[in-house]
Specification:
Protein Transport Mog1p, Chain A, 8-stranded antiparallel beta sheet, 15% helix, mainly beta, disordered C terminus, 2 domains, 26 strands
């Protein structure tokens, strides 16, 4: 229950497998005689038509497949995919970022290739491959990561291992099509509103998450957004809810536990988290008031990734243990994450978490017109 998978934008990547029907629908417009290049003036890059069977995807289309990507291309004939993911990273070390992306990509039988430094579009770039299986299908990824004007760029491409050789030659048209353009990188705020949805014991309605099973309510505010469903599963398959911003990420993992030995269990969860991230305690602990509950947050770092810091805390609500897990770029500091956790005492709270009973005396509450069983 305590499987931690820390990652940044790659956490929300959709592999594309099993999504070919959606892709065909997205790309089923009448084929133009000539594709125009994709030009992004905010992030100063250009993707020319790669040729062959590749078809470009603008931001609107690619985000239906990968919410954090801002451009991409696909070759449905060969089952090849490519996306561009960009996020603020003013003080991050290039190799640290590349290692974090590679180390925390959730795949079975994962093998990370050698990280090679190269020049790409005029910037020092780290290129590496990752091979493994996803839902039993062998996949091979190639990623080229670089820092440009305070932003981390990932030019990521992949396909089934049978279609992508160990050098990634079949993906090269996508990489050749990408180039940086002149001008200042301004970036932009891209609102990604989570649509109303529901699962077993939870729902999102009007931008608010509610869990009838674990009795929690989450209503984030800018710059955070909700992360639910398949995107959350790729972030952490045990998480109940997630929050994401450009430079900070937070998840809540809830599970039923015995009321006996809770202090010892909290220590075990912290030890598991440190082991899973190969980390050590860093600095003093932080005490916060989380909607009336005192929670101790332990700060952690991985020596191999000094550009990132992690927070871990546990509190108990009856027979439930709820882990608070956050990670962020060290230049961001803890303030953004603490603001989203604190119920009071901060001038500009980024969001609020509410933990309160959602059940009436009879142990039931209606969600989406259905009676949900009480615990």
């Amino acid at each position: 229950m305590n499987k931690l998978v820390f990652s940044l934008s790659l956490a929300s990547l959709l592999l594309g497998l099993g999504a070919c029907k959606d892709l065909n629908k997205l790309l089923s417009e009448p084929k133009a005689p000539k594709q125009d290049p994709l030009v992004d003036t905010d992030y100063c890059f250009r993707i020319a038509p790669p040729g062959g069977g590749w078809k470009l995807m603008n931001e609107e289309k690619v985000q239906k497949l990968s919410p954090d990507a801002i451009a991409g291309a696909v070759d449905l004939n060969l089952g090849l995919f490519g996306v561009v993911i960009i996020e603020p990273a003013p003080d991050v070390a290039l190799l640290d970022f590349a290692k974090l992306v590679a180390d925390n990509m959730a795949m079975e039988a994962k093998q990370v290739g050698e990280m090679k430094t190269m020049k790409y579009s005029g910037e020092e770039t780290v290129r590496f491959s990752i091979q493994g299986t996803a839902e039993g299908v062998p996949i091979r990824f190639f990623n080229q990561v670089f820092i440009h004007s305070g932003y981390a760029y990932q030019v990521l491409a992949w396909g089934m291992a049978s279609r992508v050789d160990s050098r990634g030659q079949s993906l090269q048209p996508f990489y050749d099509a990408f180039s940086l353009t002149a001008g200042p990188v301004r970036g932009r705020s891209v609102g990604r509103q989570v649509i109303d949805s529901a699962g077993v014991g939870w729902r999102v309605k009007d931008g608010v998450f509610e869990s009838a099973i674990h009795r929690m309510r989450v209503e984030p505010k800018e710059p955070f957004r909700l992360v639910v469903g398949a995107e959350l599963t790729r972030m952490n398959d045990s998480a109940e809810i997630g929050l994401s911003s450009d430079s900070a990420y937070l998840i809540l993992v809830a599970e039923r536990v015995s009321k006996v030995g809770q202090k010892a269990y909290a220590k075990k969860l912290l030890a598991d988290s440190l082991r899973n991230m190969n980390g050590k305690v860093h600095g003093e602990t932080l005490e916060i008031d989380l909607d009336g509950r005192k929670v101790t947050l332990t700060r952690m770092r991985n020596a191999g990734q000094p550009s990132f810091e992690y927070l871990h805390g546990v509190f108990f609500e009856g027979n439930r243990a709820i882990q608070v897990l956050a990670w962020y770029l060290t230049h961001t500091g803890t303030g953004l994450v603490l603001d989203v956790l604190r119920d009071q005492g901060c001038k500009n709270p980024a969001g609020r978490l509410r933990f309160h009973p959602l059940f009436g005396r009879r142990g039931k509450r209606r969600l989406d017109g259905q009676d949900e069983p009480g615990p």
